[in-house]
User: Fold these one by one.
Assistant:
Number 1:
Amino acid sequence: MTNLYANPYDISQSGFYFETPEQFHEKMDAAPYEEVEIDYIDGQNPRLFAEAGINQSNIDCWFDELEHIDDYEDEAIAISYLLDTGYDLEEAIAKHEDVMIWRGTARDYAAELIEQTTDINGLGWLANYIDYEAIARDMQLNSEISEIEYDVWVTNCQNF
């Protein structure tokens, strides 16, 4: 469960902690102010919270769609990637399943891709000369794959 804090813009007022949308709306209705900044206090997904730009207007979306997602899950990585490429929060949530994530090195991805799409056994001794490092480097330069964090790659970048 995520612990959040509603910090009023009026510095003469005190804010409140909350863990559910019901608590937030109930306390906001009773508060003498109308606008707050939402601060992340504790939970499993501070990076997703920050990437999503959670605020007073989209706090319900946080609880409905994102709170259950850990920062290191593929779903969170895909949503963050789409937000970074210019999608708004609703679009990123809707399209996140289209993002293909690879965990491992770019070389390993290139090797697996070649092995899945090419009859390497048919190449015989020539298969020993396939330069997977060069293939991976070319895929990066062509923006076919993109490293999101250490050894976490989006492998269908050109679709976005």
Number 2:
Amino acid sequence: MQIVENKKYVRGRLKIGNIANLASMGLLVVGFVASLKTDTFGQGAILFAYIALIGAFLLLSFGRSFTRRWGPRFRQDQWLVDGLRGVDNRYTMFNYAAPGLPDHLVVGPGGLFVLVPRSNGGTIRFQNGRWSRGSLAGGLLRGLAEGGLGNPFTDANRALGQLAGYLRKHGSEELIAGLEAKPILVFTNPSARLEVAPNPPIPIVQTKGLRQIFRRAKDTLPSEKVEELKRVLGREAADE
């Protein structure tokens, strides 16, 4: 398995998140100082302190969304790469290749794949077309710590649309003709326990089951199309 990453793009996004986090802490300090100045500035100081507090939480939420996506501790590619270890070098994985692409793509003779990672742990069920997470209390606590599960299929469809738009913009008509991307939902948290009904709309696996999908994949793309896809998907990473 070959790996391509747009390091410049990742560094830029992480920098935005870190700046937002630092700014939120600065606003908290400013708000705290303002709350101590009521004798001098009266109710205006209290109002300013509340505004600073609200702004700090908004900035913290914004910054956290960046650091949890691109921060070294949270990046999902580290788990995905480990799960794909042993897949042959005819396949190439693209991680954070460009702002207009899904975060994780794999292209090779078996086709073009969109990996949609989820870091949620605990019991995760997909039954009767619906997602759920263990007990209500456990799901709420994990949601606060890890982020909500939401509907992963919605994320997969969004990623497919994003990829299609990028290929229409940068790829040739010959490249796009007959090309169908294949989404895979991957739960990367080792503590995740999946309870999935048979024949889900898209493959749902844990990291350890990821490589088997590629080992079983039949060759459907000619080498010329694979090389063209690699060139288009890696165009911005190659320019860094």
Number 3:
Amino acid sequence: MPIERRYDDLKVGDKATLSKTITDADVVLFAGLSGDFNPVHLDEEFAKEGLFEKRIAHGMLGAGLISAVIGTDLPGVNSIYLSQELKFVAPVFIGDTLTAEVEIVKKRDDKKLITLKTTVRNQRRENVIEGEAFIKKFEPKSSSR
């Protein structure tokens, strides 16, 4: 269930996480949604000859977990994603369990802007994605929903 947090209740140092095990179905569905049919993601025989010697998940599939944390937990509902810097620092394999973490590192009160450190780790606690997000927080125009 998405969480609605007010800007004034958010503090530098606040963190939130979301975990998901990446399945073959996730990779196939993401390929269909994104149009990225690179065989390194979909063809085991092709991937055996590559850098990682087996199929890897799309980097943006892991990055999508960051978006899920931002939109549903921290800062949560009524947050607008303005930008995201990403560094893909290690591969994600099918069967890996990823944990996306966001941490508030800066707030700009006059415009309700939030800077987040964003990290995705695998089950071995190795960073696979590192970055920074910039978010605009707003209050709903009407409290009746």
